[in-house]
Design a protein that fits this description.
Residues 80-142 form the NrS-1 polymerase-like HBD domain. With 196 residues, the protein is mostly helical. Helices cover 47% and strands 2% of the residues. The longest helix is centred in the middle third of the chain and has 16 residues, at 79-94.
Length: 196
């Protein structure tokens, strides 16, 4: 007897409804292969040292440096999540080159025996690298800035790279120039004021 009840009744359907509504995890959508956007102009792949240097100096530099040194504290000690996070960064900088990602991961502080552990005909490391490549939507492209500039000025640039419009530059004195700071925004403002 529990709380005044003396019998049990069948309520599997009600329990199933509660389970589905509150406890059952949503089905994960089937992941579809995604091809990272590759540069339209060919470029020489970065060396391992260049990748490490650029990743360290990037906007994800702090995260990269922490992972590179083997620190998993940002992932609550979940080494597998940290492994994938590092591989995601390496995928971006390496152009999704699996051998480069693997080679660099092996140099990191996260490298451990599990990386080479056999799992279903492959290794944990290969599966992690492939997941990072599959999830990578964009790769490093040193030509991107040049491509963007060409797009921005496409209406003014002919096929032979000559300018179609006459641009009149405004006269500036040294005193006029001193009011601008020495940073990217001020340089852009200065350039814009030259062509008014």
């Amino acid at each position: 007897m529990f709380g005044g009840y003396t019998s049990l009744n069948e309520r599997s359907a009600a329990a199933g409804c509660i389970y589905r509504g509150y406890m059952q995890e949503d089905e994960q959508p089937e992941s579809k292969p995604f091809k990272a956007t590759m540069p339209t102009q060919p470029f020489t792949p970065l060396t391992d040292n260049e990748i490490i240097e650029k990743a360290t100096r990037s906007k994800k530099g702090v995260e990269f440096s922490s992972l590179w040194s083997g620190n998993t504290s940002n992932y609550n000690g979940d080494e597998s999540r940290a492994d994938l996070a590092l591989c995601n960064i390496l995928a971006f900088w390496s152009g999704c080159d699996s051998s480069t990602i693997d080679r660099l991961f092996r140099q990191s502080g996260l490298m451990r025996d599990k990386w080479d552990r056999e799992t279903g005909g492959t290794t944990y490391g290969k599966m992690t690298v492939q997941k990072a490549i599959q999830d990578c939507h964009e790769t490093y492209n040193p030509n991107r800035k040049a491509e963007t500039a060409m797009q921005d000025f496409s209406e003014s640039i002919n096929a032979d790279n000559t300018v179609t419009q006459d641009i009149q530059l405004q006269p500036f004195t040294y005193e006029d120039m001193k009011k601008y700071k020495v940073d990217d925004i001020a340089t852009a403002e200065f350039f814009a004021s030259l062509t008014k």
